[in-house]
Amino acid sequence: MAVRERLVVIGNGMVGLRVLDRMVAGGGLEKWDVTVFGAEPHPALDRVNLTDFLHGTSARQLELKGSDWYEKHEIKLHTGDPVVLVDREEKVVHSQSGKRVPYDRLVFATGSHAFRPEIPGGDLEGVYVYRSLSDLRRIRSRAAGCGSVLIIGGGLLGLEAAEAFIKLGLRTHVVERGSGLMSKQLPLEASRILQSRIQESGVVVHNAQTTESIERRGEELVVVFKSGTCVKVGMVVFATGIRPCDELARACGLEVGPRGGIQVNERLETSDPMVYAVGECAAFKGAPYGLVLPGYEMADVLAENLHGGAAVFREPDQSAILKLEKIEVAAVGEFQSECPSYSSEFNGTYRRISVLGGRIVGAIEIGGWTEISRVREVIRKRRRIWPWNINRFIEQGLLWRPQVTADPADWPETAEVCNCMGICKREIVAACREGASSVPDIAARTGASSVCGSCAPVVSRIIGAPQDVVVEPRGGFALGLVSLLCLLILVPIAAFEMPVSDSVQRVSKIESLWSDHFVKQVTGFALVGLSVLSMVLSLRKRIRRFSLGDFGHWRVLHAGIGVGTLLVLFLHTGLHLGHNLNFLLGVNFLLLAGIGGMAGLVTAVERSMIDPWGRWLRKGWQSFHVALTWPLPVLVFFHAFASYYY
Ligand SMILES: Cc1cc2nc3c(=O)[nH]c(=O)nc-3n(C[C@H](O)[C@H](O)[C@H](O)COP(=O)(O)OP(=O)(O)OC[C@H]3O[C@@H](n4cnc5c(N)ncnc54)[C@H](O)[C@@H]3O)c2cc1C
């Protein structure tokens, strides 16, 4: 049997365990004889979810792997036995209990310890930090009878603890030295919004207050601020940040970063290439990270390299998510970036994006944002966004057109739901409050979903009606047929001209239609009449009060008039479009009919096309059709003027 190399891991926390887990998964553990030392008396816990311990989750449930897992993979785990000395000359570690274990490779995964500021009274009974299971055990037993708590530090951890204490029924204060909560992640305006949401949940926030001392008065603790004010509570908890556990590494001569943490290169090697560091105790490019994800990325790189790979660690994603039940707070990507940013605030929510070179580089949200995972992906994949995305974000707080699959309950009040009638969510909600309880009710009161009907599922989600409500506009098949007819008629009209007789004596009957002055006048006025009628019909869609009859039927009639107009155009011109303005007018008519035919055809088949392509195509053809109506009155006016004047 081949001699196995000796690997010693100092620290059995989330990241130290991840290294081993990855090695097991990659099949690389067999060639190592592994020993792990953990200072805590239990196997690695899910520290990220440690707060659950206050609400009844047991220590066993928080364990990431039971001791049988270590046994199964022949990993020698020594819990409750911290390493106290590393002899790099001899390549041996010494533990507190007197164990002496030699190594070929050594991994530091010692994490961080909670920072306890040096405040008079900071070590009194009833004053705790919030980091380990033993801290939370003490906190939990004190919380049972103390009634109130003050948390020093309004960052991610302080706010998570505050929510936990509110749930335990404690009167909860949070003291923040800076001018706003989560000041490391949030701009001031966002901090204010967060603060008001946090206060709504019952937490008392003290901003811009520096704690001077903590005093005991009987059973209570009095926290005195530099401003002179003080707060009396039953318990004090420090959530004032962390410091990397690098003392052991310093003592054995490894290089540490300017802000603490064991210096590592991109292969996670320390200043001694046989010794590695991962997780919160490591400093990459001079900075230690206080989040689990960068630690996991380090662990993955190290596991691969211990298996013979050549992976490198790059600067990680430092997105921060505050895990509160009722308030969603996230800061993703380079949220502190100095580049141009756009923000949107409404109804107690806040969203901000930082944009560099047409790409979102960072984002912040408070209060929920259905697009946040898409935003994260766009940031990660460095995808481009466009000016209209930014415009929509400024106006509606959404970067992309809401999809029917996204939950419209989360849309802002100003989000447009029915594009045909220009109805926004606010109007639908208002109609709902007034008693509308179904999609047809909403359609009758606001007009939403009464036109093309594609927004009916969204309307039903907003009002909480059954999801399968789909309003199929009537006459879809007829519309498709008439539109197709229109296009078929258009081809010969656009392609051919009727022959012209070489003598006025031999004018054919049909030719007399467009050469006879009277008939020409009749067909000319008919053309104007049909055009006006067709435009008036389209008002049924745009003006809410015109709700006579079913829109689907009016739409077929509109298309039919288009076909009629083409036939009258034939009678009026004999397919000779003439020159100059007359030519422009003729082309305008033909394009109107052609584009209108396409719009009708796409509208008829939209529901069988993939969303959003069908919708985009319909909107595109319709907009083009509408745009072509604008020159028509001017051209008709000049045509009539020229005909009568000359
Ligand atoms: C309540 C709470 C909530 C959190 N929530 C989040 C979150 O939502 N998102 C997020 O990204 N991060 C969160 N974190 C931070 C996250 O838990 C850490 O980033 C992560 O645990 C770091 O893992 P680590 O292995 O580097 O350190 P740790 O998990 O601290 O493990 C290090 C281990 O090494 C041991 N050790 C130290 N010195 C020695 C020694 N000399 N000998 C032997 N053992 C030693 C320590 O006792 C410890 O068990 C939270 C932390 C807390 C406390």
Number of separate structural domains: 5
Q: How many β strands by DSSP?
A: 28
The CATH architecture of the largest domain can be named as 3-Layer(bba) Sandwich
Spatial order of strands in the largest sheet? 3-2-1-7-19
Unreliable residue runs: none
Radius of gyration: 37 Å
Briefly, what CATH class of the largest domain? Alpha Beta
Terminus-to-terminus distance: 110 Å
Percent helix, as a range, is 40-55%
Query: Mean pLDDT across all residues, rounded?
Result: 87
| CATH topology type of the largest domain | FAD/NAD(P)-binding domain
Bound molecules: flavin-adenine dinucleotide
CATH superfamily of the largest domain: FAD/NAD(P)-binding domain
Number of helices: 20
Proportion of residues in β-strands: 15-25%
Based on helices, strands and strand pairing, what is the structural class?
alpha/beta
Q: Write down the overall geometry.
A: elongated
Largest sheet: 5 strands, parallel
